[in-house]
Amino acid sequence: MEVMVWNTVLSVLLGLVSWILKEKSAEVHRLQVLLNRTREEVAKEYVTKAEVHADINRVLDRLDRLDVKLDRLMEVRNAS
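RE: above sequence
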């Protein structure tokens, strides 16, 4: 009789542990999927270093041209 009770207790305990492990495994899988989706979304919203450098270079080129124009304007004003 004691063996039957012991087998029942162990079976219930093993079933409970198995169910908990299955639930945790499913939760880890769900979190991995969410993390992958988040990584994809972040990649869509942010720019790369190359894009930033290209944009900054365009702005600096524009500022250099503006500087040249201002220098010419100041030369014309000082000459007159």
